């Protein structure tokens, strides 16, 4: 059975590669992730890892804004970082969202999130948090993406 979309094909490729690499695993002492900085994200093989993208940076916008603004800002930064590393939002496989006051902020965050990931949405998890180092920041986003 053939994958139905480009995204499903990528996922099948990654799953196949993960299985093959598990079979040919080397002793722990000789293994290296061969990671390198790729314009912001960390790259290991065909995977990009972006972590800790905050919803608000005072140098980008003086006021913290609401959850909609912060979600849009964080996802815009993600999009720009992926592009610099040769990937895109279409290649995002997994997203993790840390969200202040999820009962209040979930619906609005999710509405904005869905405008960035229109189809073949990545796997996503989230957890609630009481806050971040920067008072006023309402979310933080991590992702794992594929790059050719």
Describe this entry's structure for a reader.
By secondary structure, this protein is an alpha+beta fold. It has a single domain, classed as 2-Layer Sandwich (60s Ribosomal Protein L30, Chain: A). The chain has 3 helices and 6 strands. Strands 1-2-3-6-4-5 form a 6-stranded mixed beta sheet. Helix 2 crosses helix 3. Residues 17-27 have low confidence and may be disordered.
Please write out the topology.
Elements: H1 6-23, E1 35-37, E2 42-44, E3 47-54, H2 67-84, E4 92-100, H3 102-116, E5 123-129, E6 139-146
Parallel strand pairs: 4-5
Antiparallel strand pairs: 1-2, 2-3, 3-6, 4-6
Trace the largest sheet across and list its strands: 1-2-3-6-4-5
Give the SSE string.
HEEEHEHEE
Please outline the major beta sheet.
Answer: 6 strands, mixed
Average residue-wise pLDDT:
83
Low-confidence stretches: 17-27
The CATH topology turns out to be 60s Ribosomal Protein L30, Chain: A
β content, as a range?
25-35%
Radius of gyration: 17 Å
CATH homologous superfamily placement: RutC-like
Annotated CATH architecture: 2-Layer Sandwich
The general outline is: globular
Please tally the β strands and state the result. Answer: 6
Helix content: 25-40%
């Amino acid at each position: 059975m053939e994958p139905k979309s480009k995204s499903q094909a990528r996922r099948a490729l990654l799953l196949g590669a993960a299985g093959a690499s598990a079979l040919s695993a080397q002793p722990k002492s000789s293994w290296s992730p061969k990671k390198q900085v790729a314009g912001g994200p960390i790259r290991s093989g065909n995977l990009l890892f972006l972590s800790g993208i905050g919803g608000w940076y005072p140098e980008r916008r003086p006021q913290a804004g609401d959850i909609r603004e912060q979600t849009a800002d964080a996802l815009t930064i993600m999009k720009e970082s992926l592009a610099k590393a040769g990937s895109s939002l279409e290649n995002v496989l997994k997203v993790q969202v840390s969200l202040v006051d999820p009962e209040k902020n979930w619906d609005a965050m999710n509405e904005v999130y869905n405008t960035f990931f229109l189809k073949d949405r990545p796997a996503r998890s989230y957890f609630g948090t009481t806050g971040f180092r920067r008072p006023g920041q309402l979310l933080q986003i991590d992702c794992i993406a594929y790059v050719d």
